[in-house]
Amino acid sequence: MRLEETDVTYEEKYADADADESNDPAYESEEAEEAGDIDRTDLLKLYLREASRAPMLNAAGEVAGAKRIERARTRLMKLLSRSPIIAQYSLHLKQALLRGDESAADMIEHVSGYDVNSPVPLSSLADQALAGVESAYNNLIPPGPKPVQKRGSRKTERMNKKYPRSLKARMLVHLSRSIREIVFTPAAERRLSALVESGARIARSYEQKSGAGDSNNSTLNGKTSTGKTGGNRVGAAGANAGEFDVKAAVSRVINTGLALPLEMARLSKRVEAALSELNSAKQQMTEANLRLVISVARQFTRRGLPFLDLIQEGNVGLMRAVEKFDWRRGFRFSTYAMWWIRQSMARALDTQSRVVRLPASELTLINKVARASRSIREETSSEATSDQIAEKLEVESERISEAIGFAQQTVTLDAPANDNGETAVNFIDTGDTGNPFIAALDWSRRTAIQRALAQLTPREAKILRMHYGLDAGSEPRTLEEIGQDLSVTRERVRQIEAGAFAKLRELEVGDTLREFLTVA
After folding, report:
1. Predicted structure pTM score
2. 302 dihedral zone (left: phi>0; alpha: psi -120 to 50; beta)
3. Does domain 68-146+154-279 sit in CATH 1.20.1270.60?
4. Is 90 exceeded by the pLDDT of residue 235?
């Protein structure tokens, strides 16, 4: 029996009893009549109604859905591992991990033999696995031009054609298995699928430019898009470049005879179908648990975020739970997904419900201070002091005072203060407003910062401006947001920022900035 035949009906087979009621024509007509009473502009009511249509799954249905996702994901990785472009990208990824441009945690979920409790880090095991892919790939690529052999009998020629072809097939199988030893993250799988699709599109353009219908002639005269010959081993297949060159990779694949444009196009279609099947399985599992998100969101209402925003954040956690769920552990999916949904909503409340956004480390410290304060108050029947909290948490007293200050609610200056129409800004002391010394000090500080940034590279200066909101009218941005804007990882942004600060400390302008800190 085919995969599609076994998976399509799993929801109907394992759905709860309310599925039978929803399939009843009389029941559907009642729902249609009730839907007419709902205001179509009310998005919340419409969403709640649509979410309630999907039947809930029992334990067997959750296992069946998880198995379908697992089979679809395995099928996708088998197809991706057969692409020589993915093999070349694996070599590029190995170099990117060594340079720090990519993070192993962002790209690789685990490798064969990896144990979470093992002292060996994931990055080391990933480097070993990628080295195995590199070795298997280089065995396929001849180190130089093939030697010219004397022409023999027809039987000898047939044997020479047969055995190299079978040897190449075995090497391709070994390469595919080496790639499958690495379990990529869902985000990385989507990136690999996009690379295969892009490679097939480029290969078709090469075949059209060649002007011949025979795909065997679809080469670029033995050269890559960077001007290098395509018959070399891939020790430097984009290894020295910051970004993976798909066009050069396709050229190497065609020129070395690893795949023809027609084969790459066929593989791309199969990858696209497998990815579609995987997304369909995930969507089916997600839609069946939307009501779980709604029930959890009701527990987080009136905490600073609208109900729809809470549902949206909860859906993000639900999708993450669908990707991470392991049915072999014997737990219900609803129990497992509850943790991810709660975590996603709690993090959204911490980061979005405040007018002034705080880093995650500060939010963690604020929560620890609040718990320690409650514990001390229960033990001593009195309010906890900063010193008592610092002693309990083993943190400096100054950090506790800062956390308590950060925890205070922000007052909106435009909020009405009384019945006379006055706002809170009318009751704020102007203080140093108009003080020429303060104005001169601010101007000097801004000038010193601009001179310091001029000593850095444009990329380093841009990261510091974005992270700390140094430009007029700009807001501070997180490392994650900066990384998305610059198309690099969060870890790479942090490394560039640390290098910029180290450079400023060695320059004379660093002493000037320190003087402003003492004045402030």
Report:
1. 0.58
2. left
3. no
4. no
